[in-house]
Structure formats: structure tokens, C-alpha cells
Write a structure and sequence with these properties.
Number of strands: 3
Shape: elongated
Largest sheet: 3 strands, mixed
Strand order of the largest sheet: 1-2-3
Strand content: 15-25%
Structural class: alpha+beta
Number of helices: 5
Order of helices and strands: EHHEEHHH
Helix content: 55-70%
């Protein structure tokens, strides 16, 4: 489940309601909304999520290897892009791209990747 990064966008409930209505009512709100901000004098004090969601969030936060793998994949992709871009600049293609296209004119394409 994706949550807003802004506490103001989450459902809110005062701590006095949690005390008066009880834990089951709070958990119904959590089940319905995914997360509930508990406030004290209208100031956020806690965010309540289900135990399963908490475990998912902790696992996601601890999966730095996944983030490192994505970063490496992006670096590899960027290097490939830079090679293709450099070849476009050095080949005759850059000259053809700098000239305006004319109707009926012929453009000779370079070697395909």
C-alpha cells in the first residue's frame, strides 16, 4: 500500500477518541485507510499502521541491496546511452541532423545498432 509522505493527507483521529471509542474503532480506521495519524491537541503524535504493513515497511527500508542494484543498473544504462550519443555526434549523422530537412531530399542513414 502506498502512503502519502505528508501527514496532513492521512486520516486523523484525536487521542481522546482513541481513549473514548477504544482500540477496535481505531483499528477499523487503520484497516479502512491503511494508516491513521493520532493527534494530541491537533498535533500529530503517532501514525498507526497494521503489523503486516509495519513489517513490509521495515523490510523495504532494510533492502539497501535492491536500491544499490537499481543504482548500478541506472549507471550501466547511462553509460550505454552516452556511448550512443557520442557516436551520433562523431558520425556524419550530426551533420545531417544540423541541416534542415527538405522535401524530397535524401538522407543516408548510418549503421544500425
Amino acid at each position: 500500500m502506498d502512503f502519502s509522505l505528508n501527514l496532513l493527507d492521512l486520516e486523523r483521529t484525536p487521542a481522546s477518541d482513541v481513549k473514548a471509542k477504544g482500540w477496535p474503532e481505531l483499528m477499523r480506521k487503520v484497516t479502512r485507510s491503511g494508516a491513521v495519524v493520532v493527534t494530541n491537541h491537533n498535533h500529530p503524535q503517532a501514525v498507526v499502521v497494521s503489523a503486516e504493513e509495519y513489517q513490509r515497511l521495515v523490510a523495504q527500508a532494510n533492502s539497501t541491496s535492491t536500491a544499490a542494484e537499481r543504482a548500478q543498473s541506472l549507471k550501466t544504462l547511462q553509460a550505454e546511452f552516452d556511448v550512443h550519443l557520442a557516436s551520433m555526434k562523431t558520425d556524419g549523422l550530426s551533420k545531417a541532423l544540423n541541416r534542415p530537412a527538405r522535401r524530397g531530399g535524401r538522407i543516408t542513414l548510418g549503421k544500425s545498432l
